[in-house]
Design a protein that fits this description.
Is required not only for elongation of protein synthesis but also for the initiation of all mRNA translation through initiator tRNA(fMet) aminoacylation. The chain has about 525 residues and is of the alpha/beta class. It has 17 helices and 18 strands. A 6-stranded parallel β-sheet has the order 3-2-1-14-15-9, sandwiched between helices. It binds ligand ME8. The site of ligand ME8 has 19 residues, from helix 1, helix 7 and strand 14.
Amino acid sequence: MSSKTPYYITTAISYPNGKPHIGHAYELIATDAMARFQRLDGKDVFFLTGTDEHGQKMQQTARNEGITPEALAERNSNEFRAMGKLLNASNDDFIRTTEPRHHEASQEIWRRMEANGDIYKDSYAGWYSVRDEAYYAEDETEVRADGVRYGPQGTPVEWVEEESYFFKLSAYEDKLLKLYEDQPDFIGPNERRNEVISFVKSGLKDLSVSRTTFDWGIKVPGDEKHVMYVWVDALTNYVTATGYLTDQNGPRAKYWPADAHIIGKDIIRFHAVYWPAFLMSAGIPLPKRVYAHGFLLNKGEKMSKSLGNVVDPVNLVSHFGLDQVRFFFLREVSFGQDGSYSEEGIGTRINADLANGIGNLASRSLSMIAKNLEGKMPEPGPLTDADKAILATADEAIAICREEMGRQQIHKAVGAIMNIVNESDRYFAAQEPWVLRKTDVARMATVLYVTAEVVRQIAILFQPIMPDSAAKLLDLVAVPEEKRSFVYLGEAGRLAPGTELPAPAPVFPRYIAPEADKA
Ligand code: ME8
């Protein structure tokens, strides 16, 4: 058995009613960076993603396409899986809610909520948004100029009236408010926390948790006319994958409760209100944190099929390169806020931070070692204050990164790494090793040693953000595979003098926009 501390992190599970878009890619990349960070930091990580395949939206889309919901789910779930491969996502499992293990777990959680006296039969009459798979109170909806009634997320709602089971959500109002107070970190960022608290304070009504007017879902135990409301089953996926509900002694039960659910801001209510209430009712421990990221906007505009600005992640990656796209999103967007992207913005970042930043620093220092020091890591001489200062900046960065990644402030962790790059650039320019080559070769060797050592640390820290490019950089400074985790940061893993380095090769090419290319 591993003595490492378990760490369980999840993305939302996506609706496979269409192909994945850039918002899905963004969430997966960010969560992957957090999972990789914790692994490199010595945790026993379980990282889950997957697809949310039931519900009215899936059934309607399938009907419109003239295929079965099973076929629609199968086709698009495969697209989501393929996107994960393309993005180099390191998820340990991919869950589909149509799998038998998930039907079993969902029925089990239902039975426990029922046994706790929280489920009763009545009839529902109210507004429902199929696109959001959400019930809305009348005062949350409005009729717009087009005569259509819309919900708070701008999607059309329809009137639903049917026999339904209800969950006694109203009984959890005080318990939820106490949870938010006792565990201030349960919801992040703060804007979302405040939003959730005021929603709960405004009063909770019991929640309709089953449907009878369609059958694409998980059957309610003991009443097969009903299928569970899709969000009851969807949220349960996080527990399903650990086996916690059905096999307490299984190898993954140790991962529950989850350390972090990473989701978009549009689904905070489900994760921070309904989900903890279901879990409390079923007597299951609560996740430690729910963190909602913002929305990606294309040049400041919401992506939509009608605006024709929906970006396919496959195209973006083939145009800019995977690690370039990963870096851009994680550096440019404050995680938790909305973020805007454009081709120009991505190109500018690639050139400023990657090509002219870390790429240039590595290639200038390593090519001087290749040319002047027979391609071997030199023996450093006595260290000056400037040498010590830049090494200290590199050695101290992990503490900052750990703190920021622990709060899902990915952009700040990336900023701390970029700060080492920028300071190293200034150090290198000030030391002028190309002048020392003619005046003081021993001192030149020390400057090159220090720079290469800092490049090593930058590369180790960049692994969660740009796994392939960081590995190439680590190859260039001859760091063996087994010495790439965070315990080797700082003194513990200093480059060994005398180590033979491979021939330097560029890792971050400049981005040249297609138009400029032609000119
Ligand atoms: O909501 N920018 O699925 P989904 C950033 N099945 N993130 C975005 C985005 C954008 N433009 N558009 C969507 C669902 N997302 C449910 C979840 S979890 C038990 C069930 C995010 O396919 C969105 O916020 O509509 C969500 O976190 C994820 O993508 C999947 O969205």
